[in-house]
Amino acid sequence: MAEEFHKPTKFPGKIFESFQGGIDPAESSRIAHETALALLARVRHDPDPDVVDRLIAYTDENGIDTIAELWSRATARSLPGALWRIYLLRLMIREDPHESSYLFQRGSEVIGTIDPVVAGASMPTGPDEIRTLADRILRGVFEGDFAVALERAAAFCRVSAAGSASVADDSDAAEPARSADLTTRALRLSTLAHELGSCAKLWRHESLD
């Protein structure tokens, strides 16, 4: 998923792949897990609104690179992996709320499941509504039921994947390049939905670390 996202100052997504660091993978994994656990435990124990606001807006002001260095190499089904994916999802939405809301709205019309309700976006879903949803999902990581926040994010991804696939079908003849891009996006979102859903189940069984 990482190459699909960029930070506000257009930090190239492919740079995520080139992070080498100065420590061995085991030490990097240990740091990723310890920082994720410490952050989540500290904020959830005393969810000061100002602190939560700063964490939500962190990538808007500082970019994604610090978080990437901490968590981007963590396995998908881990606490740092889950936090990384939630931040990337919010960043994707905020970088192009018009496209994100369009695909989510289309997905809501074609998916035929309760996922639009689980995700919790206002209907109809425009750019303002989709930005609000992204912030609410991330806020839920720190203030509410963590598993619910992950499930909402997973539902958002499934709806958006359905919308991407539907628009890709519509664009296939007239805009094959756009169709291919949207098909790839749908696959990535589906993968992300599965990973976040798995993390939610692990959290409920006290097995996400």
From TrEMBL:
Record-given protein name: DNA-directed RNA polymerase subunit beta
Keyword Transcription listed: yes
Top-level division of the source organism's lineage: Bacteria
Keyword set, alphabetical order: DNA-directed RNA polymerase, Transcription
GO cellular component terms attached to this protein's record: DNA-directed RNA polymerase complex
